[in-house]
Amino acid sequence: MGDVKVIGASLSLFCCRIEWALKHKGIAYEYIEEDLRNKSHLLLRYNPVHKKVPVLVHGEKPVAESLVILEYIDETWRENPLLPEDPFEKAMVRFWAKYVDETCVISAWTASRTKGREQEKSLEAARESLEVLNKLIKGKKFFGGEIIGFLDLVVGTLPNWLKFLEESEGIKLFDTKELPFLHEWAQRFTEIPIIKGSIPTAEDLINYNRDHKKAE
Question: Any residues with CB less than 8 A from the CB of 137 and at least 6 apart, and which?
Fold first, then answer.
């Protein structure tokens, strides 16, 4: 079906999803690490609009934006499906995936980059959004049910990234007492063979951030 390449950054929240999806499907691919401080001609060629990772290149046809790529992968390779067949259930997964990226991630990131009243508002929004995820996973093994699905891959790196924000910026969001079900899910998720050893840890992100600041 054509060669498959992934242009990404190994510590990116959004790029890990793509590699996990391909591994889940059993699809061989070539991984190309991108230097985000010195963007390559390859990235600019395949994603000239946003100039961001990840980019999936399948038979020389590029697909950008992680959620779009995940759907493309699921529709192109039908084995080990990530999205449910039922139209309503599929729509709900898409809704929650967008919620994670546009509410959970954005509010936490904004809280880490602001001070005062604006930070307080962002922290409140982040905590509320994480509580929603905590309720969503309650009583389930994975967001996808008994096996991982689309939403598990989307949420996947979030807990470690939140721990990184806590250690680097001093904002506590991933409280195991406040979010017990999400915490239990995170422990199960990181033990999955295709995830274990490839998920960025909080320490990885701290070291990268420190090295990046030194290079500036």
Answer: 143, 181, 182, 185
What's the rounded Cα separation, in Å, for the pair 105 and 91?
A: 20
Beta bridge partners of 194: none
- SS3 assignment, position 29: coil
Q: What is the pTM of this model?
A: 0.95
Say how far apart CA 157 and CA 100 lie, in whole Å. Answer: 11
Q: What is the per-residue pLDDT for 212?
A: 63
Q: What is the pLDDT of residues 96-106, one digit of tens each?
A: 999 999 999 99
Q: What is the DSSP string of 163-214?
A: HHHHHHH------TTT-HHHHHHHHHHTTSTTTTTTSPPHHHHHHHHHHHHH
Phi, psi of 39 (to 5 degrees): -65, 135
C-alpha span between 143 and 25 (Å, rounded): 18
Do residues 152 and 182 lie in contact, with contact meaning Cβ atoms separated by under 8 Å?
A: no
Run of H or E residues at 53? none
Q: Could you tell me the pLDDT band of residue 1, with boundaries at 50, 70 and 90? A: low
How far is the C-alpha of 144 from the C-alpha of 83, rounded, in Å? 8
Chain mean pLDDT for the chain: 95
**One-letter amino acid of 33:** E
